[in-house]
Design brief:
Blueprint lengths: L22 H11 L5 E2 L14 H9 L14 H13 L10 E4 L1 H13 L5 E6 L3 H9 L3 E8 L5 E2 L1 H7 L4 E7 L11 H14 L2 E5 L23 E7 L12 E7 L5 H13 L5 H4 L2 H6 L4 H4 L5 H14 L4 E3 L7 E6 L9 H12 L1 E2 L1 E2 L10 E5 L4 H27 L1
Parallel strand pairs: 1-12, 3-4, 3-6, 6-7, 7-8
Antiparallel strand pairs: 2-9, 4-5, 8-9, 10-11, 11-14, 13-14
Helix pairs in contact: 1-13, 4-5, 4-8, 12-14, 13-14
């Protein structure tokens, strides 16, 4: 390689996508630098929309700053891990101890660590489509192969256990469950989760259950922790402070292992090794975990009638219903809506081109649906974090762009 040759990135990155912070987000930043005000609905970042972390959590960090200067144990500070154990036991998962809990710099880091400790080259991981793209990226970067099981809109974005079972091969090592779901807002029924747990147990699959939105559910919906159903295989439950406790910047997440722990000692030792290699995760934020999990759960009010998340969700559902161009399966949990575009009006709709047009013309930033590893290109995701007035304004601008696209199509048909 000559000194003048360009420095090429790793070929492993060729199949890695994260468009939530990709080209559209970079263009949004350019427009902001030019003085435009952008309505950013591409990321679930509560602090940007005025949500605050509970004060008791901030005080817990302040009171423990003196204890935050040294490295802690690679698994995390004991009170934080023990608080996770108590939460799991309160849900009926009795086989977890603090030794089975790892704290991380957000769930994102722990997704990478769990897959790195598990996968050999060519191993397969079953991942939902649509997915949260970090799961696909972490699988690929750790030598694995992402195999998608579909969560169809016609089935309210629920997984099909029969399809999942058909997809299992001798190379399948794990199945990813994202519940409550990002990006669709689906909350999976107990019956479907039980069937998936039985499949995982029968085929020896590790269950990787992403439950970062575990308490962010709307009235009439039951959230079922996957660990309560996994008795015949290993279950890794992921959660953290970012969403339910509105503390994204603290970068505090955890993974708790339960189920067939006796068969997982070598794997857990590999997790411990990887955790030690990065020394430890952010210490100050860990001191907020015990207070968060043991304190008043303010998220329940936000998701109830009159609460801000509930009312923003209602505003989205009403705005979609008022447009002939749009459709949505009402989200039952999380902080997103996965909105579809009526193909009768736009048979050649392209979600990425629409998202860029919306950004350039109306200064609204959304995430194209295909960013979430879908085979179709007629959806986009928005967060439910803006207030009702902002939601109304966003859909007014979306309607303008869709009307322009419909008008352009009519003109082409009459030529």
């Amino acid at each position: 390689m000559a000194s003048s040759d360009p420095i090429a990135p790793s070929r492993q990155l060729s199949d890695v996508r994260y468009e939530i912070r990709g080209q559209l987000a970079r263009r949004s930043l350019e427009l902001e630098r030019q003085g435009y005000e952008i309505l950013s609905l591409n990321i679930g970042n509560p602090g940007l929309f005025g949500f605050r972390t509970p004060e008791t959590m901030r005080l817990a960090m302040i009171e423990n700053l003196a204890a935050s200067e040294p490295y802690c144990n690679q698994k995390g500070v004991f009170p934080a891990r023990e608080a996770v154990v108590m939460q799991q036991q309160g849900r009926g998962v009795m086989d977890v101890t603090a030794e089975h809990v790892f704290m991380g710099n957000g769930v994102s880091e722990l997704i990478d660590l769990t897959l790195r400790a598990l996968l050999n080259s060519g191993d397969e991981v079953l991942i939902p489509s649509p997915d949260y793209p970090l799961w696909t990226a972490a699988t690929v970067l750790n030598g694995g192969r992402a195999v998608y099981y579909s969560c169809d809109e016609s089935n309210e974005f629920m997984p099909d256990p029969d399809e999942i079972e058909r997809l299992v091969t001798d190379r399948t090592r794990a199945i990813v469950i994202i519940n409550p779901n990002n990006p669709t807002g689906a909350v999976y029924t107990r019956e479907r989760l039980e069937r998936i747990a039985r499949i995982a147990g029968k085929r020896g699959l590790v269950v990787l259950s992403d439950e970062i939105y575990d308490q962010m559910v709307y009235p009439g919906t039951e959230f079922v922790p996957m660990a309560t159903l996994c008795r015949d295989t290993l279950c890794a439950t992921f959660s953290g402070l970012s969403k339910v406790y509105r503390a994204c910047g603290y970068r505090v997440g955890w993974v708790a292992f339960s189920g067939t722990l006796d068969r997982a000692q070598e794997y857990l030792s590999a997790m411990d090794l990887l955790a030690a290699l990065r020394l430890c995760s952010n210490v100050p934020g860990q001191w907020a975990v015990q207070t968060a999990l043991g304190g008043f759960q303010s998220i329940k009010g936000l998701c109830s009638p009159g609460g801000r998340l509930f009312e923003s969700r209602r505003a989205i559902i009403e705005a979609v219903a008022a447009s002939p161009f749009l459709n949505v399966v009402a989200p039952k949990g999380s902080m997103y809506a996965f909105i579809g575009v009526n193909r009768d009006f736009f048979p050649t709709f392209d979600d990425e081109r629409f998202a860029m047009d919306l950004l350039e013309q109306q200064h609204v930033l959304v995430a194209p649906g295909s960013s979430f590893n879908t085979p179709y290109r007629d959806h986009f995701r928005i967060t439910t974090l803006p207030d009702e007035a902002q939601i109304t304004e966003v859909f007014r601008r979306i309607q303008i762009v869709l009307e322009q696209l419909a008008s352009q199509r009519k003109k082409l048909e009459t030529v």
